[in-house]
Amino acid sequence: MSRQASKDTGAELAVRRLLHAAGLRYRVEYPVPGMPRRRLDVAFPRAKVAVLIDGCFWHGCPEHATQPKANAEWWRSKLDRNMARDRETTEHLLAAGWTVLRFWEHTPAEEIAATVRATVDREKQDRDLRKQRAREQSRLKSRGGADG
Predict the structure, then answer these.
(1) Distance CA 98, CA 47 (A)
(2) Is-above-0.90 flag for pTM?
(3) 3.40.960.10, 2.40.10.10, 3.30.420.40, 3.30.70.2740: which CATH number matches 10-142?
(4) Is the pLDDT of residue 5 over 70?
(5) 99 Cβ contact list (under 8 Å, min separation 6)
(6) β-bridge mates for residue 99, sequence order
(7) Could you tell me the strand order of the sheet in which 39-44 lies?
(8) 77: Cβ–Cβ under 8 A, 6 or more apart, which residues?
(9) 107: left (phi over 0), alpha (psi -120 to 50) or beta
């Protein structure tokens, strides 16, 4: 297991290259807020968008997952814990107001990058709209408000 890449996998690097080329700036191996020892593959903290690219074997892809024959019971338990941890991390991030994008490593990098870009753009627009509304509300309150 120690030889298995846990970060900077080929799929992650391909997606990051495409995101960077599209002008997006992001954090790599970003700590999951409030969850020690858990990290996001790619994060857009201001937009609160988390990107996770899961390996088919380690995260139980329904299409490509395999079951080792040697020490099968230990491996089944290990992989089940990985999938439970994935669910827990996703739920935690959603509760904290993050948008969570999970992809399988076999998903084409171009497809992942397009989805991420659209999501980040939408979240930025939503954030800007919320800020604009808050400024307008503040301005109305400082002038006595529409009701006053």
Answers:
(1) 8
(2) no
(3) 3.40.960.10
(4) no
(5) 47, 48, 49, 50, 119, 123
(6) 49
(7) 27-31, 39-44, 49-54, 99-104
(8) none
(9) beta
